[in-house]
Amino acid sequence: MTSPDAGTNAGIGTMPLIGIVGDDVPRQLVLAAGAVPRRLFGSWHEPVSAEAAELLGTVDAAAGRILDDLLSGWHDDLAGLLVCHDSQADLRIFYVLRILAQRGRLPFPVHLVDAPRLDSPAARRFVGKQYARLLEFCEQVTGRRADVGSLRRAAEQELALGSALETMRERRRNGGCTGAEALRAYCAAATMSPEEAVAEVSGAGAAVAPGATPVHVTGSNHPDAGLYDALERTGDLVVVGEDHDTGDTAWLGVAVDGTETGEVIDALAAAHLARPAAATGGLAAARAAYTATCAERTHARAAIALVREHDDAPTWDLAHQRLALDRLGVSIVTRTRIRPDEDIAALARESAAEVVAVLASPSVGPSVGPAGGTDS
């Protein structure tokens, strides 16, 4: 069964746990209703059971592992589950779970959070209504009504996490934290109360290999740090940033203040719609511009696009990302259709060697894509 790199139950006391699939839930609302938000992660590399595969059809393996863990009882300690419509795979998970819950296969209720990412007045109203329903669901699960006081306390706690995350990102940019350690901290923090998350993030740090080339990672999200570990173990690379939703773009440490509940909900809807575009819900040009901004901010010398098999959305961005990174003189190496059974150590060695070769050869263009034979 899949579990985060850090324990998820330590220190939660008697507060109920509300699970989250996806990354569109404002943690402040869950906390204000008296629960601890716990994001559920799958795995790149663990096998998916025949039952989960049959129920979901052909989907990203990480989604299959999330369903497997739910069916196996790994998350039976949840009081409720929020599923985001931030990808087709997650939407399939919701539909399957709704039927299974009706049949008594799940010991907790399930709620869909449908929050689009393209901003408009209509989208703000729609997301605001979605977040109001999300809060109502959490209140029903916990039996506790959120008010301005609990929303303010939740905001203070979550903003403390945001400050700790920014300090960790600064350590990372300055060579005091590897990409793998940062990713472990992000994933663990998403399963914890803010106080526990602050301690986890504040302790994240590891020496970077001398002379390692700073790289930016794009493509699929990473439910664990296995591939980052493999890349950095080569000694040739250090991951200084990423634009996927289990790393730097995870919606952690964000909160707002307001004089009434509706004001807080509206502000959270606006904050959600101001987030960087996601591969499944944004325009490719906007995604590419954000990738380039991240690479420039972290002084990455190269980028690596790592995309799982059946996680098709990130591949739509590659052509635009290549052009945007070219303007910065940043090389990009791409690996698509990565299978669950693929040897990640070999994948990492090949990717690192290619980055080193591209940077060392002025005769090779600044980016390498399918025409150069780098996709696998």
Write down the overall mean pLDDT: 92
Specify the helix fraction band: 40-55%
Find the count of extended strands (DSSP E, 2+ residues).
Answer: 8
- Order of SSEs, N→C? EHEHHEHEHHHHEHEHHEHHEH
Description:
- The protein is an alpha/beta fold.
- It folds into 2 domains: 17-148, Rossmann fold, CATH 3.40.50; 159-164 and 171-252 and 276-360, 3-Layer(aba) Sandwich (Rossmann fold).
- 46% of the residues lie in helices and 13% in strands.
- It has a 4-stranded parallel β-sheet with strand order 2-1-3-4, with helices on both faces. It has a 4-stranded parallel β-sheet with strand order 6-5-7-8, sandwiched between helices.
- Helix 4 links the parallel strand 3 (78-84) and strand 4 (110-113).
- The longest helix has 26 residues, at 148-173.
- The radius of gyration is 20 Å and the shape is globular.
- Mean pLDDT is 92; it is low at 1-11 and 364-376.
Write the layout of secondary structure elements.
Layout: E1 17-21, H1 27-32, E2 36-39, H2 50-56, H3 61-71, E3 78-84, H4 88-102, E4 110-113, H5 121-142, H6 148-173, H7 179-189, H8 194-202, E5 213-219, H9 226-233, E6 237-242, H10 261-273, H11 284-297, E7 302-308, H12 313-316, H13 318-328, E8 331-338, H14 344-360
Parallel strand pairs: 1-2, 1-3, 3-4, 5-6, 5-7, 7-8
Helix pairs in contact: 2-3, 3-4, 5-10, 6-8, 7-8, 9-14, 11-13
